[in-house]
Amino acid sequence: MLLSHLETLNILSTPVWVVSVHNQQIIFANTAARKLAGNSLLGPLRNGQFSVQSLQSLESYLPHLQKGDQVIEIWTIHKEGRAFPLSCRLSLAQFGLQEPVIVFEGTHTSAANVPAPGSFLSEARPYRRDQSGFYERFFQTNTAPMLLIDPANNGQIVDANLAATRFYGYTRDEMCMRHTWEINAMGQDVLPVMHEIARLPGGHKPLTFVHKLADGNLRHVQTYAGPVDVDGVRLMLCIIHDITEQKRLEQELEHAALRDPLTGLGNRRQFMQLVENARTQNPQRTHNFSLMLVDADHFKAINDQHGHNKGDDALVMLARTLETGIRESDTVFRWGGEEFLILLPLTGLEGALHVAETLRTAVERFARPDLPSVTVSVGVVQYETGEDFTSLFKRVDDALYRAKTSGRNQVQMG
Predict the structure, then answer these.
(1) Which residues, listed in sequence order, are joined to residue 95 by a DSSP beta bridge?
(2) Residue 53 in contact with residue 60, Cβ under 8 Å?
(3) Which residue from 53, 105, 46 is spatially nearest to 77, judged by alpha carbons?
(4) What is the pTM of this model?
(5) Which of 67, 84, 246, 399 could form a disulfide with 414 if both were Cys (CB 3.0 to 4.6 A apart)?
(6) What is the pLDDT of residues 92-119, one digit of tens each?
(7) What is the DSSP pairing of strand 16-20 with strand 25-29?
(8) Element (H, E) at 266
(9) What is the mean pLDDT of residues 162-175?
(10) Is the dihedral of CA 21, 186, 34, 30 positive or negative?
(11) 170: alpha, beta or left, given left = phi > 0 and alpha = psi -120 to 50?
């Protein structure tokens, strides 16, 4: 039933991708989308050379889409050896699923319509300031940084209001000697993006960029850009909102949400996010890896005999010992309680068993007079092609169970 719903999208001439919000994966691409971008994964489309979003997390879009806000993203499409931007309009859909999905509909599909950097040479009448005009008074008295940009002339900044000169640290004349790509961290890659945005009707949720100030500092900004006609000259009006502090707080909260507060290690959520990102952006790294599940032996007895504070200290010690003993490419996560999960990329079973035995020995030999001694049991498995993660985790858990029921303080493979 679901497939029949989705296949009706094949009659559309515009490219359409249906994306799972929960898994952040493309679950369907219509014929036009496959013709345009092949079987591209979501990661490279949303995080490519020309990609720009309002929000990085798809879940964050849900309240905006539910309210009917107009949301767009710029994706990076690779075709026939060339990369170019594609505007996508976002909407919510159900398609008979328990959870809503986000539909990304491409609004322009021809790479040939995207001029290369340096090709925006305008023959139009140049913009001239009218000091007494209504638009000039509105522009200069607005407290938000505002730029007027000529997209047909390499993104030339033709005017900047007082708030913009204060924000960027340039005089008005200095601003008007620059182009957008000189203040945007994307550099000249922003020109095709700007060209794409200029073809939109406006009214969409602002997009997020990183801008460079005169003193070299970088600021995260949300930029609303829409077409405007000033005395017969077609320009883009850009309204800038500094969100650097908001971004910093978001990153701190995200960091806290992904870390175990006791050991400072990544938690289960971070592991799942890391694996999901690898599957969408670098799938070859998910086809050859091993997992190790480490469990502190008799840990309840340690808590009972020495108290929970000493038990916590022992867990921190164990975390540091595991971190010190792994290779640079490996990552340790606190899986829960006294269990730790170790991800070993590009590692076969034999190599993983060697690392596991090295760690087991290091923990056994560690001694500090103020801490109880600890040993660990370890289960090790190598990912098998085509295996889902439920099966993989069952195998590593079963291997750990065998290590514990066979006497503990040992390594078992699954």
Answers:
(1) none
(2) no
(3) 46
(4) 0.70
(5) 399
(6) 987 776 788 999 999 865 444 444 544 4
(7) antiparallel
(8) none
(9) 96
(10) positive
(11) beta
* Residues catalogued as catalytic: 338
Angle 55-20-17 from CA coordinates, rounded to 5°: 85
CB 409 within 8 A of CB 385: no
Residues recorded for the chain: 414
* pLDDT top residue among 66 and 273: 66
Q: Which residues contact 296 (CB under 8 A, 6 or more apart)?
A: 302, 314, 315, 318, 338, 339, 374, 375, 376
Task: Give residue-wise pLDDT tens across range 389-400.
Answer: 889 999 999 999
Are 356 and 411 in contact by the 8 Å Cβ rule? The answer is yes
Compute, in degrees rounded to 10, the torsion defined by CA atoms 194, 199, 201, 202.
Answer: 0
- Residue 161 near residue 139 (C-beta atoms within 8 A): yes
As to burial, measured by CB atoms within 10 angstroms (0-12 exposed, 13-18 middle, 19+ buried), residue 357 is middle
Task: Choose among 74, 80, 98: nearest CA to 23.
Answer: 98
Q: Which of 342, 352, 333 is nearest to 414 (CA)?
A: 352
pLDDT digits (tens, 9 = 90+) for 138-153: 787 889 999 999 988 8
> To the nearest 10°, the Cα dihedral for 178, 179, 185, 189?
-150
DSSP state of 217: -
Alpha helices in 211-263 (DSSP H): 244-257
Strand 411-413, strand 376-382: pairing: parallel
Q: Is the pLDDT confidence value at 239 over 80?
A: yes
Pairwise CA distance, residues 355 & 399, whole Å: 16
Q: Report how far residue 167's alpha carbon sits from residue 79's, in angstroms, rounded to the nearest whole number.
A: 39
Strands (E), 196-269: 207-212, 218-230, 233-242
What is the identity of the amino acid at 298?
H
Long-range contact pairs involving 213-216 (C-beta distance under 8 Å, separation at least 24): 213/167, 213/168, 213/169, 214/168, 214/169, 214/170, 214/174, 215/169
Token pair for 157:
């900044």
Q: Which of 318, 302, 209, 306 is nearest to 262 (CA)?
A: 318
